Amino acid sequence: MKIYIRLLALFVVLLSLVACVQVVQPTPSAPVPGDGATAPAATEDDLLAEILARGTIRISTDPNYEPQSFLNAQGEFIGFDVDVAREIAARLGVEVQFVTPDWDLITAGNWGGQWDMSVGSMAVTTGRDEVLDFADPAYYYTPAQFAATTASGITSLDHLNGQTICVGVSTTYETWLSGDLDALGLPESSYYAEPPTDVRVIPLQSDNECAQQIQAGRNEFSAFLTSNTVVEAAIREGVDIVKVDGPVFSENLAAAFDEAAPKDISRLKQRVGEIIQEMHDDGTLSALSLEWFDEDLTQDPAAQ
Questions:
Q1: Are 255 and 139 in contact (CB under 8 A)?
Q2: What's this model's pTM, rounded to 2 decimal places?
C-alpha cells in the first residue's frame, strides 16, 4: 500500500512539471545592420552568419605591396588595403585576421574555406569574374604605370618595344602585356595606350618585387609595369627609376569572394558592398587614400 501511495505521489509531481514546460518557438535571425528588405535570408550554410558567430573575419592580403599592404618594423600589417580591411571588419562588428597566400592562389579561386575575403587591390576582370564574386562598388581605382631604370634611357612607351619587362605573376599587368584585352575585361574607357610589341615578360611573385630587384642590382630587365602607387612608393624609397610616359590603363579594385566557398557568400558580399558604399559616402575611403597615396583615388574615372 505504501509503495502504491509513493508511486501515485511521484506521478502527480511529474504531471505538474510537464504542465510548467513551455514550447519555445525559434527566434528569427536578427537582420544584419544595413541589410535591405531584399537581402537574402540567413541559412545554416551562411558565411556571414558564421563570421559573426566566430567574431573574426579572415582576410587575405600581401605583406610586400607598399603602400597598399606591408609589414612595419614591428611586424604589424599597415597600408591602405589593411586600413580598409580593418574598417570593414569594424563595421561588421568583428575582429580581422590577416592571411598571406600567394597572389596567384587568390586570383585562381577555390580557396577551400581557408580565408573569407580578399581586400588586396584586386582588379575586377572578366577572367577573375568566372571564379570570384566582387563587392559592388569598387573601393578605389588606380592607373597602371610603366617605370624604367634611369640608366636604361627608356623615357617613352615606344622605347619599350622589344624590351624585357617585369610584372607580378597573375596580375592585370601581365594580362595587358599579353594583349589579351578580352580576358582583362576592362571598360573601353579604361585603356589609354596599346601594349608594347615583341616584349619578353618576367613574372615575379609580386610586382613590388620588380622595383626591389632593380634596387638589388638585378639587370635582366630595365622596366616594369605596376600600379602608379607602387611606382611612387619606390621612387620615394630611393629606387633609381623614372616613370615612362603616363598611365596605360586604369583598374577598378574591389573586395573579392570565392564562388566555390564551402558556405554561401551572398549575404557577406552584399553587406560588404553596403559598407564600402557607406565608406565612400562618409569620406572614410577618401581620407585613407589621401593618407597613403597623397591623392584621392576613390573616385571612379568613368564617372568623371
A1: yes
A2: 0.75
